[in-house]
Amino acid sequence: MNEGIGTLGVIGLGLIGGSVCLAARETGACARIVGWNRNPAVREEACRTGAVDAVTATIAEIAAESDLLVLAVPMLSFPAVLGEIATTLRPGSLVTDVGSAKLSVITAAEEALTGEQLAGLVPAHPIAGSERSGLAAARADLFRGHKVILTPTGKERAGALAQVRAFWKTLGADVQEMDADHHDDVLAMTSHLPHLLAYALVDSLAGEKDSREIFRYAAGGFRDFTRIASSDPIMWHDIFRANRVSVLSGMDLFLSRLRNLRDAIDRADGEEVLRVLTRARASREYFLQLLEERENRPAPPVTFVSAGGAPLQGTLRVPGDKSISHRSIMLGSIAEGMTEVDGFLEGEDALATLQAFRDMGVVIEGPDQGRVRIHGVGLHGLQPPRAALYVGNSGTSIRLLSGLLAGQSFDSEMSGDESLARRPMRRVTEPLARMGAVIETAESGCPPVRIRGGGRLRGIHYDMPVASAQVKSALLLAGLYAQGETAVTEPAPTRDHSERMLRAFGCPVQRVGNRISLQGGATLRAQRITVPADISSAAFFLVAASIQPGSELLLTGVGVNPTRTGVIDILRLMGADITLEQEREEGGEPVADLRVRHAALRGIPIPEALVPLAIDEFPALFVAAACAEGETVLTGAEELRVKESDRIQVMADGLAALGVEAEPRPDGIRIRGGAISGGHVDSHGDHRIAMAFAVAGLRASGPVIIANCANVATSFPGFVALANRAGMKIRTEEAES
Ligand code: S3P
Asked: Do 718 and 318 touch, CB atoms closer than 8 A?
């Protein structure tokens, strides 16, 4: 209820004006509604349908009796209507409007109204409408959830802005403010130009002599593109003229882009055509994503219910390796030429990296069934992103990109989701700062990460305090842009995909003992990359088949890089039956088919040397430990506390909820194997914890219900379908959000 407004006067009872009346009535925004329309038949209809309480015969009359006047007339009628209002408008009254261009409204008002009258004007533009017009099309919910942009004149009296804002809010609108000239430029591009093009396209076809024939075959595309050409011609005629300057500059820009595309097609320049189309599609996707974020529609929470299953059988291929997928996009983008990738992981994390490079102007085709083509722009070809890069849940994206972005000539910023916002970034920003990067995090040392471009990096020798492939990779990527040698010493071996891929792209990377180094300035040359299946995803099936009697699975094409196979070594120490078949090398990475059969597992002390080599597989290994005979003890694994969640605590809590004895320790955990009961656990949005407990459900005496599983899509899209195909019984439930 908007207490301030007694009588609402609406001038113009078409779609928008009529909807203002209906919405005001429904929401109780005012005590009384009076209307005016040029056409007496419409005035009559408004009374008959109850859209208004009364109508007046003249504009002067309605202006005299209204506390808030809404001008909903075609744009070019504003000067005349404002002139008539001015004769009777009371000094204390408020005036707002619904015009699609704002400078012309303000100019007309300044000419027609007295200073006192002008002080009640707050121009508004509701971004809502329909290609249908007239009072009959009016709807009470037209503004609900839509934006209404206010463009204050700067001359309004105290309180006027707040009152008009409150009125539009009462009608259900999301009210925002903008400068009038900025509004007109933005709307010229996003609304006026598309309407103009739709009219022009239909008219181009309609003018052809065989137009009937053309229209007969004009299907979805034409219909979608030209829907808005069914809008009210008078209204749009007025808008194009009222916003002439901005509309013309939008048209000029568009015509030059259209000509460029025309010329590219004419000279058969496929590269340029593809570049434009890919860039446009990526921009549209980016725009839709922004819209979604803005509308604050987080993905609905997903729950897994895992309830037993058959012996696991068959031949499976899990999706592509996440670490290698990230690196393929990064190096492909800054290489010279076209990099072609097969087996790319179409999970949210790797897609976040892909989007980040598109945002920096790289044309990337796909992914299409794991195929991606990256049009490399060279070491110095990235362009400044238009906004902060959003990398979702992906620690690998933000850390590796910190290194790469530190070497660019432009400023950048990266942020991510709630989980990423809690992860430590100083481990990369500190050594990068030593290289000369100007880089900062939030005060907590967590994202967002902001990088000032244009500085000069110099190579350093960094003794890594933690065994982290992400830190090592970030420094090597920065090293490409640094003067001299960049060297990293790792306290224990960590995954070496960056080194292998850099070498494949033609950058000599040296390794002497545990010291890895490269020289700045190398030119990278595009490659063909085959991404192996991700051993981190295969790990869930290695554990599942090991703990489920009667199981035998063949997991094909799995990456078995020795810096990643800790999970196989640990499971074998526990008694697992895993064999490597068809060992081969693909694209510089060792690959094998893994055969795993059920075996009785026993608890072990996990050798600390294996920890970095199995760093992502501990959630699955803890489930193996829960099913093993005796005690498993993990030490030297404090890093697990700063992964996508605190994996020690979250796993200990979940195991305890399933009746398993699990004692968390600062640097690890002690788990006593035994019976597993059904129960509720929370993955805390950690993909690997969600999948680990889904595996636990195989051996639990009742259903295991796992909350917050949506992030499984970050690394293993299709997990549930594949697990069920193998014999597990997992159901997905989407909660109402
Ligand atoms: C990764 C390195 C590891 C790992 C992560 C992926 C990589 O992180 O946990 O999932 O691709 O370099 P740390 O470097 O923090 O150990």
From this structure: no
Give Cβ neighbours of residue 73 (< 8 Å, ≥ 6 apart): 11, 12, 17, 81
pLDDT given at position 290: 65
Residues annotated as catalytic are 616
User: How many angstroms separate the Cα of 374 from the Cα of each of 103, 412, 472?
Assistant: 44, 22, 24
> Using a 6 Å CB cutoff, which residues line ligand 1?
323, 396, 468-470, 473, 495, 615-616, 639
Q: What angle do CA 143, 144, 146 make, to 5 degrees?
A: 65
pLDDT at 284: 83
In whole angstroms, give the CA distance from residue 120 to residue 94: 4
d(CA 149, CA 176): 5
Counting ligand 1 atoms within 8 A of each CB, the residue from 321, 401, 446, 495 with the most, and so the one to mutate, is: 495
Exposure of 210 by Cβ count < 10 A (0-12 exposed, 13-18 middle, 19+ buried)?
exposed
Measured from the Cα of 472, ligand 1's closest atom is 14
- Whole-number CA gyration radius for the chain: 32
Ligand 1 center from residue 499 Cα (angstroms) = 14
Task: Please state, in angstroms and rounded to a whole number, the distance separating the CA atoms of residues 17 and 6.
Answer: 18
Gap between the Cα atoms of 15 and 37, Å rounded:
12
Nearest residue to 536 (alpha-carbon basis) of 579, 568, 507, 504: 568
DSSP per residue over 444-490, as a string? TS-S-EEEE-S--EE--EEE-SS--HHHHHHHHHHHTTEESEEEEE-
Q: To test ligand 1's pocket by mutation, which of 475, 613, 615 has the most ligand atoms within 8 angstroms of CB?
A: 615
**What is the CA(532)–ligand 1 centre distance, in A?**
17
CA pair distance 406, 396, nearest whole angstrom: 15
CB count in 10 Å sphere of residue 292: 12
- Residues 375, 361: contact at Cβ < 8 Å? no
List C-alpha distances in Å: 662 to 39, 308, 375, 658, 693: 79, 22, 50, 10, 14
Question: Cβ distance 483 to 407 under 8 Å?
Answer: no
Q: Which of 72, 60, 56 is nearest to 21 (CA)?
A: 72
Q: What atom of ligand 1 comes closest to residue 470's alpha carbon?
A: 14
Burial class (CB in 10 A: 0-12, 13-18, 19+), 348: buried
How far is Cα 69 from Cα 12, in angstroms, rounded to an integer? 11
Q: Mutation test of ligand 1: which of 321, 345, 468 has the most ligand atoms closer than 8 Å to its C-beta?
A: 468
**Of 151, 145, 150, residue with least CA distance to 174:** 145
Q: Consecutive 10-residue runs of the chain (737 residues): their mean pLDDT?
A: 78 96 96 97 96 97 97 95 97 96 96 97 92 90 95 95 97 96 94 95 80 72 87 90 94 95 95 85 75 60 95 98 98 97 96 92 89 95 90 96 98 94 97 98 97 96 97 98 98 97 98 98 97 98 98 98 98 98 94 98 98 98 98 98 97 98 98 97 97 98 96 95 98 74
- Specify the 3-state DSSP secondary structure of 267: coil
CA–chain centroid gap for 502, Å, is 28
Distance separating alpha carbons of residues 240 and 100, to the nearest angstrom: 10
> Measured in whole angstroms, how far is the alpha carbon of residue 359 from the centre of its chain?
12
721: which residues sit within 8 A by CB, 6+ positions away? none
Asked if residues 185 and 192 have their Cβ atoms less than 8 Å apart, the reply is no
Enumerate residues 6+ apart whose C-beta is below 8 A from 84. Answer: 58, 59, 60, 63
Query: CA–CA separation, 393 vs 320, rounded Å?
Result: 18
